[in-house]
Amino acid sequence: MTWTTLSFPHDISAQDDRDSEAPVVIGSKKFTESVVLGELIAGLAQAEGVRAEHRKELGGTRVLWEALLSGDIDVYPDYTGTLMHETLSDHRISDVEHLAAVLESHGVRMTRSLGFNNTYALGMRRDRAGALGIRSISNLIGRPDLVFGFSNEFIDRADGWPGLQRTYRLPQQDVRGLDHSLAYRGLVDGALDVIDLYTTDAEIQAYDLVALDDDRGHFPEYKAVILYRADLVDRHPEMAGALGGLEGVISERRMAAMNARSNVDGVPETVVAADFLSEVLGVHIEVELTTRSQRLWKHTREHLTLVLVSLFFAILVAIPLGVIAYRHERIGALIVGVVGVIFTIPSLALLVFMIPLLGIGAGPAMVALFLYSLLPIVRNTHSGLKEIPLPVRESALALGLSPAFRLRHIELPMASGTILAGIKTAAVINIGTATLGALIGAGGYGQPILTGIRLNDVGLILEGAVPAALLAILAQSLFGIAERFLVPRGLRL
User: Which SS3 state, helix, strand or coil, does residue 8 take?
Assistant: First the structure.
């Protein structure tokens, strides 16, 4: 396969009721340019009469690629260099035509270039680079004392730091991984000397940075393209116009300007995209901006859903597991060990593990939260039952009470305080961990936190962090009230 040619549709013979169709789901990575491009695609889809849903800031390259293959999203913007040297690196792709053919074999197609190249570069503060006489990446070879800070994706990908270090034989060992947006702050504050840049980043001009010359030609071209599922245009013929409309119309200067309006000037990406479509393509779309209260209500609903559903099912599963662990010592050791191992898995890693199995969105986030809730409830149920005084258990046996009767009327009531404490611990953990669900499209309070970090907007960060903290405090209070009704009076602390 070679390039896919797209054109605006003129005649669609069969029109289905679009309100009954599933929307086209657009994904974007967690940096401003990708979000803006996602809004441009959504805007053109709207202009073509297609219902579109933009799932913003879904994480890194691998998350979006897996979501596209699984059908959780239909389209997302990416870059040829990333596809050739990271996503599909095992295919040893030689050129763009080869890339298109490999994508086709995965059931994926791509547009022609959108018109700009956003490659990687290494950057320094202009004054710092001038004082040290550093103009190119080769000049870094003799400066092992400099502190490097790279985005987490760049530090691990083949076309990032590992390959760059080999190409230039750089001696630096003090290399830190951090969020791309935070790296800029570290550079400006002087905590870092060198970071990775995207060449269309607005921060380069805003912070007066200099991109070091790649004098050995390590970084390939990263032409912006749109990836989409092969069956998308068959399902939504109108999307041909939405996808083809952006080919070759965005210059590097225009893309950098859009990034600056969003990152530096604080203009919402939806407005930035709508203005571009109106000024450059003559496409006028309606923009609906949400108020802070509307966003807060939406994120609260999403967050409560994540927490309550996962906690409900965890209670249903974990308490019986705790009872089994109490009744059968050997099996109990295995149960507690397994849920303990699950609990030690980093939350972000567990969320990513869910994507190939369950896709993106609230579902996999709930499963991850459910798994994290098991240990506190299982352990406290097991401990609460084990701590029942031996004379009480012996008396129940002497009376000839059945195991089911003893469990329901004696053991669980006596252990109820400890069990409730485990459930409370699980609830508080879930409230905090659920903020990471935004990385895979689950929404909740994590969404404004992610956006605030990306835009360096403290107000947005607090918009998610403060309600999450208040919700945790509220949960503590509600469990205190619940204790009065669920724990026998004589056993309350």
Answer: coil
Helix (H), strand (E), coil (C) string for 394-408: HHHHHCCCCHHHHHH
8 Å CB contact between 374 and 314: yes
- On whether the CB atoms of residues 69 and 41 are closer than 8 A, the answer is no
| Residue of 158, 123, 156, 155 lying closest to 140 (CA atoms) | 123
392/387 Cα distance (integer angstroms): 11
Question: 461, 451 in Cβ contact below 8 A?
Answer: no
pLDDT band at 216 (very low <50, low <70, confident <90, very high): very high
The pair of structure tokens assigned to 448 is 């404004």
pLDDT tens digits along 319-334: 999 999 988 888 989 9
Please enumerate, as own/partner, the contacts of 89-92 that have beta carbons within 8 Å and a separation of 24 or more.
89/158
Pick from 148-162, 241-255, 400-414 the range whose average pLDDT is largest: 241-255
| All residues at 6 or more sequence positions from 437 whose CB lies less than 8 Å from its CB, including other chains | 306, 351, 362, 365, 368, 369, 443, 444, 446
C-beta separation of 441 from 64 below 8 A: no
Half-sphere CA count of 333, side-chain side, radius 13 A: 2
Query: Cα angle vertex 346, ends 32, 429, to 5°?
Result: 95
Residue carrying the six token digits 């053991």: 411
Q: Phi, psi (5° rounding) for residue 465?
A: -70, -45
Q: What is the pLDDT of residues 300-320, one digit of tens each?
A: 999 999 999 999 999 999 999
Query: Whole-structure pTM over 0.90, yes or no?
Result: no
- Over range 328-342, report the average pLDDT: 91
**Per-residue pLDDT, 360:** 84
**Residue with structure tokens 């029942």?**
388
Within 10 A of 387 (CB to CB), how many other CB atoms are there?
10
Calpha distance 439→355 (Å, rounded): 11
Provide the mean pLDDT of the chain: 87
Crossing angle of the two packed helices 458-486 and 412-433, in degrees rounded to 10 = 170
| Residue 394 pLDDT | 67
Q: What phi and psi, each to the nearest 5 degrees, are found at residue 18?
A: -65, -25
Per-residue burial over 152-170, b = 16 or more CB atoms within 10 Å of its CB, e = otherwise: bbbbebebbbeebeeebeb
